[in-house]
Amino acid sequence: MAEFSFFYMEAQKLPLLYHLSFKSDPPRLILSLHSDLLTAIKHFVPLDQVLPLITPDEFSLDANHFGFKKVFSFIEQKSEYYLYQAELKPTVELTEQICPDCLGTGIDEYFGNKCRRCRGLKNERKFDQSQITAICQTLYAVQKIPWVMESWPNTTYEQIFIFSNSPTNGRDQSDLHVEINPLGVVELREQSIDTNFILSQIKIAQTILEPFFPCSGLRCEYINNRGFMFAVPGDAFFLDGLYQNHSKSILGLEMHTHNPDDLEGQLLLFIGLAVLSDLLFQQIYHRSFSS
């Protein structure tokens, strides 16, 4: 099949092969996969060729799990789609060891403000981003598969958005490229999507991932009448895109990241896109994807 290309969201109707949703109680990312995509992974697609950045033998696809480190658990089958979920876990926890920099005071002795090591928490912190990495690696695999399938099925619904991501931590290495269906762009242009709701859902996710720190740097908003954007914590880490004008038709919306800092920010962007995708699906088809 063709390579990932903006042309497809511009000129062709892509079948709905995968869909992302987010549910807040408990906070979890839901991945819905078309049965043909799963069949391709099982029988036709050599993962070692599709996923050069990842060790394929760490990938699971069985009756109960999907993805790297079994990060997604099977929920149910609805029509031709299989639904999996990853319930979000904290990336940091406090240990019983006191912070060696402030000796448990939580205060920087030289400047009098919060200790830069423990951020005023007084104890050492233990970090674990294995779940975040596994989720982003799994989504990297998902977006690769459609372009090497021998054929695409006919589906009732169109793909709401396609994406390309880098599942690598590090400055300018955790980038994300997104293209939103032209039908979705119609809704965005009319500003019919509640950005405050999307932002509230991203905050719920960040509170789980970073339970000791207040939400900061999060944004979800229209760029006047010109485009749409998300921003997550980091050094100006955001995903945005501007609408394109065309004399014959409305094109899809192409979005790129700026200063992609880490996979935690990438996951927060995916969660924002999942909420947006659900809202766009409901606006376009007048029904919930999961119903």
What structural keywords apply?
291 residues; alpha+beta; 2 domains; six-stranded antiparallel beta sheet; 14 strands
H-E order: HEEHHEEEEEEHEEHHEEEEH
Shape: globular
Strand-residue proportion: 25-35%
Unreliable stretches, pLDDT < 50, 5 or more residues? none
- Radius of gyration equals 20 Å
Q: How many strands, which pairing sense, and closed or not: the largest β-sheet? A: 6 strands, antiparallel
Q: How many helical stretches? A: 7
| Distance from first to last alpha carbon | 31 Å
Helix-and-strand structural type: alpha+beta
- Helix content percent band: 25-40%
Major sheet: arrangement of strands: 1-2-6-5-4-3
Number of domains: 2
- Say how many strands there are: 14
What is the mean pLDDT? 87
Present the secondary structure layout.
Blueprint: H1 6-11, E1 18-24, E2 27-34, H2 35-44, H3 47-50, E3 59-61, E4 65-68, E5 72-78, E6 81-87, E7 92-98, E8 123-127, H4 130-144, E9 161-165, E10 176-180, H5 182-189, H6 195-209, E11 219-223, E12 227-232, E13 237-242, E14 253-258, H7 263-285
Antiparallel strand pairs: 1-2, 2-6, 3-4, 4-5, 5-6, 7-8, 9-10, 10-14, 11-12, 12-13, 13-14
In short:
The protein has about 290 residues and is α+β, with helices and mostly antiparallel strands. It has helices spanning about 5-10, 35-45, 45-50, 130-145, 180-190, 195-210, 265-285; strands at about 20-25, 25-35, 60, 65-70, 70-80, 80-85, 90-100, 125, 160-165, 175-180, 220-225, 225-230, 235-240, 255-260. The chain is built from 7 helices and 14 strands.
